[in-house]
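User: Quick sanity check before I run a bigger batch. Here is a single chain. Can you write out its predicted 3D structure?
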Amino acid sequence: MDEPVVFLNLMPGAGAPEYRSSGAAGADLRARLDAPVELRPGATAVIPTGVRIQLPSGYEAQVRSRSGLAAKHGVSCLNAPGTIDSDYRGEIGVILHNHGIEPISIADGDRIAQLVVAPVSRARFVEVDSLSDTDRGAGGFGSTGR
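Assistant: Done. Predicted structure follows.
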């Protein structure tokens, strides 16, 4: 499998996304802040990373929560996975939400999210008069069991 090449444009003081183990699917994104941000319980903030990327055509980057922040502090990416399209050239911002009961301080350089680069397939949408039948049919949330 060929590795996609992702070009980085880092703002002053920002760190490049970093894989922390040989089997890691996500590269850690770090906060790029001039001053710490206190994230109170129930609060949401967009945390800058100082990272801009250029993805190859046919790829996206997904911004995902870090399991340590979620498990230890109840902090996760609100729209995970957030999608960065191949034609976006702005700074990556991470939407963090504190679901926990204690405030948490986010400081410059803290690892706040993971970036996963993945191939994208684009669909061709075709309108039809009806859809094929299945055992599930129109059964929605929880319809296949507990």
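The beta strands are 7-10, 27-30, 37-39, 44-54, 59-64, 75-77, 82-84, 91-98, 104-106, 111-119.

User: Great, the batch can go ahead then.
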